[in-house]
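Human: Can I borrow your eye for a moment on a structure tokenisation matter? Separate attempts, laid side by side, tell us more than any discussion would. Could you pick a protein and write out its sequence and tokenised fold? No explanation is needed for now; the record alone will do.

Assistant:
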Amino acid sequence: RTKTDRFARIVLIGAADSTPYTNVVVLLSFWRGLLFPRRMVRKVDMGKRLTVLVMDDAAVVRSLLVAMLADIESVNSVLQAEDASSALNLIERHKPEVAILDVKVPGQGPIRNGIDVLKRVKKTQPDTSVIMLTNHATSRYKAECEQAGADYFFDKSSEFERLLDTVAALAERM
């Protein structure tokens, strides 16, 4: 058997597991070029080079997003943060045009989660487009994020492609 055959069998076995990140792991594995559908790959060159911040406490999700965003030519760099305070430090230092934030991340003091980071970003850098990406895509969280100023709100389990479309569209407008 080829390496790809063995890999596909492992992915299919892993897909039977019902952990929250199973789909993300499968997508990440496919994304690296073994079996991922070509239609997901974006090559957009709009002239403007974006800096994007990704804040998520799950390393596998951050890795997936970095890999996906790297295929958008208008994305110059992707900053990564695993918690709220790291995200705010990176945002203050690099002033990204786009911030992709998870709702539930570790935080301390007055910045306890992704919604608190969202509020701070919209207060200090209102031109930054903020995309909330979460496994907690309930109407309560969506309303709270919209009220805090989120530009977009996506479900991690089903809307990664919409996220890429959104970043590409933001690049066109900037």
About this structure: The longest helix spans residues 160-173. Residues 19 and 170 are 32 Å apart (CA to CA). The first strand starts at residue 50 and ends at 55. Confidence is low (pLDDT under 50) at residues 1-46.
